[in-house]
Amino acid sequence: MFSLQDLHYQPLPLPDRISMPDADMVKAANLYYQTMRCRHTVRDYCDRPVPKEVIETCIKTAGSAPSGANHQPWHFVAIENPQLKRQIREAAEEEEQRFYAGGGGDEWIKALEPIGTNADKPHLEIAPWLIVIFAQRYGELASGERYKNYYVPDSVGIATGFLISALHHAGLVSLTHTPNPMRFLNALLERPKSEKPVMILTVGHPHKDATVPSVAKLKKPIDEILTWA
C-alpha cells in the first residue's frame, strides 16, 4: 500500500530495455506469434497439480501491466482449496442455469451453440487452480484515505491478457468464465464492496482427451483486423 510521500514525480533513466537489430525483432515477433497461436481455451482438465510458485509468478507478470495513473486497480484471488472450488462451482452453475434457461436471451445463447457450452462447469472443481480477478473501483492509501481509480476496465483487461499469456508461456491452459451476476464471489472470497469480480480464470493442465470446438480455429485474417494509415 502506498503512502502520500511515495507519490511525487521523479524522472528516472529508462531502467530496462531489450534492444535488438531489426532482423532479430522480426524473429522475436514471429516466435511469440507462433507461441501464442498455440494457445487454446480449454474446458477439459486433469487434476495434475500446478506449483504455487508458477501461479504466483504469472500473477506477478499480470501485476506489471500498465494501468490508468499507475493505480493498478486489480486484485487476484488464487484458489486451490477443494471446498471453496466446489462452492464456486455450485454458485456459478446456479447462475448459468438461469442464463441457459432463457435469461441470456435467444441471440446470445444461439451465438454460443458453435462453442458447445452449457450450464455444467465441472472444470471449476477439477482444475487445480481458479484465479478470480477483481476490479477495484477505488484504492486506499496507507493512511486509509480513498482515491479514485481511472480506466479500470481497460487496465484490468490488459492485466488479464498479461496473465493469460504468462500462464500459456508456463505450459498451462486456461478458461475465462464470467457467470452473471458474480457478486457471490465477494462474499465467498471475503473481498470488499469496492471490488467488482470480473472473471473466473480456470487454470491447469488439459485432460488427455481434451477437445476444442472447431470454430475456435477460425481467426480473422490480418487484412480484417489491421489497417495501415
What does this molecule look like?
With 229 residues, the protein is an alpha+beta fold. It has a domain at 52-105 and 119-209: NADH Oxidase (3-Layer(aba) Sandwich), CATH 3.40.109. The protein is 38% helix and 15% strand. It has helices at 22-36, 52-63, 82-103, 106-112, 123-126, 152-169, 184-189, 222-225, and strands spanning 74-79, 129-136, 138-140, 146-148, 173-177, 195-204. The strands form two sheets. The protein has a four-stranded antiparallel β-sheet. The chain has a two-stranded antiparallel ribbon with strand order 3-4. α2 (52-63) packs antiparallel against α6.
Radius of gyration: 20 Å
Name the CATH superfamily assignment of the domain at 52-105 and 119-209.
Answer: NADH Oxidase
What is the CATH C-level name of the domain at 52-105 and 119-209?
Alpha Beta
What distance lies between the first and last C-alpha atoms, to the nearest angstrom?
43 Å
Strand content: 15-25%
Strand tally = 6
Q: Judging from the principal axes of the Cα atoms, what is the shape?
A: globular
Strand order of the largest sheet: 1-2-6-5
Give the biggest beta sheet. Answer: 4 strands, antiparallel
Low-confidence stretches: none
Q: Quaternary status of these chains? A: single chain
Overall pLDDT confidence:
94
Q: Helicity level, as a percent range?
A: 25-40%
